[in-house]
Amino acid sequence: MNEIYFRKGKYIFNTIGITICCLAYIWLVSKLHFDEQSLLVILTTGLVYFGGLLILYAWVMYLRMYVKCILSHQPALVLTDDELQIYRFEKGNYLSVRWQSIEAFVPFVYKGNTTYNVVLKDYDEYYQQESNWFQRFLLRIYSGIMGKHTIANIDVHSMDIDADELLGLLNSHLSH
Which neighbouring-strand residues pair with 5? Predict the structure, then answer.
């Protein structure tokens, strides 16, 4: 069994950066004073505060992910003889995929960030496992964007392993 963990340094740096941006946004919003009460000023103020709430929400979600993944020392990937387990931080559990169900790992590189899309032979089997209709809807959208039969991706940039080494390790389990 192989366990691959998240890269701690990246998450610490990103958490500090997001915290600084969130605090700067809150400081800037606190300095705004609108003397007029026109419709444009009211809409602008509403958008500014809505943007602040979105940034605050992203900050809280990122901190939640950071605490779950890093401080609790959850592995990002678990490779056993029977299955691949991908940690889903948004749900706090693992997506388990049998090696026999995986067709390939398709690399996707965007601005230097390597991601491996997990392409399945039988997509509908995993689609039906999602109990929530909204999760199934999101899975269909994701599959439409990333390619047919894609259920998840593996973000190599956030892991403590080289991209080529990880692909070799994943493909070696596929060949068994």
Answer: 75
pLDDT tens column, 50-96: 887 887 787 777 777 767 666 777 788 899 999 999 887 767 788 88
Cα distance between residue 159 and residue 79, in whole Å: 14
Consecutive H or E run containing 4: strand 2-5
> 124 φ, ψ to 5°?
-65, -30
| Paired tokens of 2 | 């192989």
Global pTM reads 0.68
Token couple for 142: 């994701």
Residue 95 and residue 152 in contact, taking contact as beta carbons nearer than 8 Å: yes
How many CA atoms lie within 13 Å of 108's alpha carbon, on the beta-carbon side? 16
Structure tokens at 154: 């593996």
